[in-house]
Fold this protein.
Amino acid sequence: MIDGSDAITLLTEMIQNACVNTGDPASGGEIRSVRTIQRHLGQTGVVIEPLPGRASVVYRHEGSDPNAPTILMIPHLDVVPASADGWTHNPYAATQADGFIWGRGAVDMLNITAAMVVVFKALRDGDLRPIPSDIILAAVADEEAGGVHGARHLVEDHWPLIACDHVLTEVAGPMIGPVDTRALPVTVAEKGPAWRRLATRGTPGHGSQPYARTNAVVALSDAIHRIATHDQPILITDEWRRFVPHLPITPELAERLLDGDTVDAAIAEIGDEDPILARWIHACTHLTLSPNVVTGGSKVNTIPDTAELGLDARLLPGQATTDVEEHLRKVLGPDLFDQISVEPIQEMPANGSPPEGLMWDAIGDAAERHTGSRALAPTLTPVSTDARFFRARGIPAYGVGLFDDSLSFPDMLGMFHGVDERISPASVVASTQFLATVVDAYGQRLIEGRFA
């Protein structure tokens, strides 16, 4: 078994690199962490830099059989912004205190990025036994803004570099469920982004004389209020049905979470004890709409003639992008809907991978070795990851790691894009060793012919 401690050093350096992606194409600066990985591997790799500083780096280690399926490990290098307000420690200092490494990206997802780099190096250097498969490491930019300059760019413009048969990526999380039946979460599916820009138009004029004027901001604020306060559409998916048995709740409550007529009341009950878990369950059972960015007006004394809203909408498997417009028409009513223009910002259907097959079995082998149980919880995540670009091509993609018991599953959920993001050094080592075992088990199943 590999040591894995190098991943702690890598994680620390990447947090300190502060590759902060604001959504502005000039932000990110992932080239800093590309340089860190190059130094660690002692190898340049293939650097893809569609914009200055927005860099991804790709490495390939050839296996013993050119006909064997290929594994792609694709972690991302960028992180979302963090203000020091509310944090116990500087979010970009990678402080080690109280049994944790603190910093933006500690769980999303620089811990797994570091682990994958160390696993790749160990296989390349012969510290892990050889496998028949080629293994590709692609540490990418821009995941936090849709992968436009990262994974999507590689898939659309550099496919031969990353062509693969199975993908390992995020989201990884701690074990879940009652102590005697705990399971390892494996992300197999995700909601689809259906972001929209809503715009209203008004009649400009002097702010001292608003009578009988059409104010674009007022119309937009009315729309925002209706969107934010209206019930959101429920859909109980097969992906959700597979996951619910692993939740640490009573069978009666689990049954209510699987019924569209009772799920909201069940979520509210869970929220009394665990609002973070309730929020996640709501996202996994509803088409969600969140009005997040508002612009309008130019001067205090001028009635605005334009106002815009950036709306984050997320589709569940089985929902279509047209469901967003249908919901908006219902919520806003024909009078207001017809006054508003709606255009897509970014959209992609929800997608997933079946919890079966060669990689799934290899993950089960690794879970059995490290936890004593093959119990895996196929998990739907409400966030978007780079896995969707590969699942759209029919390539199975899974997100997995291994945490110690210092954080619970809801603890981890609350840290994504939140304050006091942190992870224990033991979890970083555990994920590194776990992923090494997944790769090894994948290879052994190929050698022995034990795969679906």
